[in-house]
Design a protein that fits this description.
Helix content is 39%, strand content 23%. With 271 residues, the protein is of the alpha/beta class. It has a domain of 112 residues: D-Maltodextrin-Binding Protein, domain 2. Strands 1, 2, 3, 4, 7, 8 and 9 form a 7-stranded mixed beta sheet that branches. Helix 7 links the parallel strand 5 and strand 6. Helix 6 packs across helix 7. It is elongated.
Length: 271
């Protein structure tokens, strides 16, 4: 009977050693749809390489580009996982039964851009609400738009600082296109909010316009990860891994120093 006790002890030790490591599904191919900025910056390829080396799974990028294109591709079916900004479009995938378990897993951020002359004097301001107040008080043109959720960020800043827009200097822009809105802002000599990453990479550019305010955490917006209800264990494993502490620590440093002193994306709190 002694050998049974020894065998049980060995088994217990092996289980204890492996207790911190999740059991991985058998290697499989995971088809994903991701917003284009994660590919353009090299972020997703680096993340994918880490996951594939760890698990033996293969990730296939089935759709990448603007949010509208990526969500539409996921709606057609045949894709296991989607990672796009938090939005009505993402929640509607869940409401329509096309996706499950929406979870935040990282953030990107917006910046306040404006004319190089900076008539409101906001250049270098670290508090986005203070910068917004200066723009309003100076009656400088402010372009308000919905692209990339900028209207929601602006609304929250105004609510927090109890600021009212000046109708005489506010320009409302309906197109969901950052290139068009930046050009409109340039033509009007206006301040506005756009994505930091496309400005850093020069994918978004307009002569006479520059980044004036950046770095306030209130300018950040979350991404959600969701899986198809028919996705296999591998896709669910990838979704969980994106929110794991190790991945979050990696996100917190990736790209820092490449374009500025900040990482390209920002981690979220996980429990």
């Amino acid at each position: 009977m002694r050998w049974l006790a020894v065998a049980a002890l060995v088994c217990a030790c092996a289980c204890a050693r492996g207790g911190d490591e999740p059991a991985r599904p058998a290697p499989a191919t995971i088809r994903v749809a991701i917003v284009g900025g994660m590919s353009d910056t090299g972020f997703w390829p680096a993340l994918q390489q880490r996951y594939e080396a760890l698990t033996g799974h293969t990730i296939e990028v089935a759709a990448s580009g603007p949010k509208k294109l990526v969500v539409a591709a996921f709606r057609k079916g045949g894709i296991d996982l989607i990672a796009v900004h938090a939005s009505d479009a993402m929640i509607n995938l869940v409401a329509d039964g096309l996706a499950v378990n929406p979870q935040p897993w990282l953030r990107n951020d917006l910046v306040i851009v404006g004319p190089t002359a900076d008539p409101a004097g906001v250049r270098g301001e670290k508090d986005a609400a203070v910068a917004l107040k200066k723009i309003i008080d100076a009656k400088a043109p402010l372009l308000v738009h919905a692209s990339h959720g900028a209207d929601g960020v602006l609304h929250d800043l105004r609510e927090e600082a109890k600021l009212a827009l000046d109708p005489s200097s506010t320009i409302f822009f309906n197109e969901d296109n950052q290139h068009a809105l930046l050009e409109r802002a340039r033509a009007a000599g206006a301040y506005t909010l756009v994505g930091r990453i496309p400005m850093l990479t020069k994918k978004l550019h307009a002569d006479g316009m520059e980044v004036l305010v950046r770095g306030d955490p209130r300018l950040r917006r979350p991404y959600l990860v969701e899986t198809s209800p028919t996705a296999g264990d591998a896709a669910r494993d990838l979704a969980a891994w994106l929110r794991s502490p190790d991945t979050q620590q990696w996100i917190a440093t990736f790209g820092a120093g490449k374009y500025d002193d900040q990482p390209l994306f920002f981690p979220v709190a996980v429990r």
